[in-house]
Amino acid sequence: MSEFISPRNLASSLEARAKHPEYVPIAGGTDHMVASKDRGAPAGMINLFGLSELSEVSELEGGGLRIGACVTYARVLDDERVASRFPVLSSACREVGASQIQARGTLGGNIATSSPVGDSLPALLALGATICVASVDGERRIPYEEFLLGYRKVDLAGNELIVAIEVPVQHKGAVQTWRKVGTRRAQSISKLTMAAVAHLDDGKIAGIRIALGAVADRTVRAKAAEAALLGQSPNDESATRAIKALAGEIVPIDDVRSNADYRLGVAQNLVRRFVLSL
Amino acid sequence: MNIDVTINGESRTIETEGHRRLLDVLREELGLVGTKEGCGEGECGACTVLLNGEPVNSCLVPVGQLQGASLTTIEGMAGSESLHIIQDTLIRYGGAQCGICTPGVALCAKWALEKEPDASKERLRELLAGNICRCTGYQAIVDAIVAAQESAPETSLKDAKEPGDE
Amino acid sequence: MVHSSKSGEEVTAKGSVSQSSVGKGLPRVDGDAKVRGTARYVDDLKLPNMHHGMTKRSAVPHGILKGIHKRDGFDWSQVVVVTAEDIPGRNTIVLIEEDQPALVAIGAPIRHHDEAVALVAAPSRELAHEALTHLELEVEEMPAVFTCEDALEAKVKVYGDDNILKTYLIEKGEGDIDAKLAACDHVIEGLYRTQAQEQMYIEPQGMIASWDEGRCHIVGSMQCPFYIQKAMCTLLGLDAEHLVVEQAVTGGGFGGKEEYPSMIAGHAALLAREAGVPVKLIYERDEDIAATTKRHPSVVRHRMGFDADGTIRAIDVDVLFDGGAYQTLTQVVLSRGVLHAAGPYKCENTRVRGRAAATNTPPHGAFRGFGAPQTTFAYERQTQKAAKLLGMSPFAFRELNMLRDGDSTATSQILEGSVGSEAVLSAVKEVAEAYALPADDENSSVRHGRGISFYFHGAGFTGSGEARLAGRATVALAVDGHFEVRSSSTDIGQGVQTMFTQIAATALGVEPDVVRVPSPATDRVPDSGPTVASRTCMVVGRVVNQASTALRERIEAWARENGFGDMPLRQAATAMAKVEGEIAETVQYAPPAGIVWDDEMYTGSAYPCYGWAACMVDVKVDLDTYEVTIDRCVHAVDVGKAINPVVVKGQIEGGTLQSLGWALWEDVIYHDGKVANDRMTNCIVPTFSDAPEMHTIIVEEPFASGPYGAKGVGEIPMDGPCVAAVGAVEDALSSLARSEGFDVLPVSPEAIQRAMRLES
Question: In terms of CB atoms within 10 Å, which end of chain A has fewer, N or C?
Answer without folding.
Answer: N
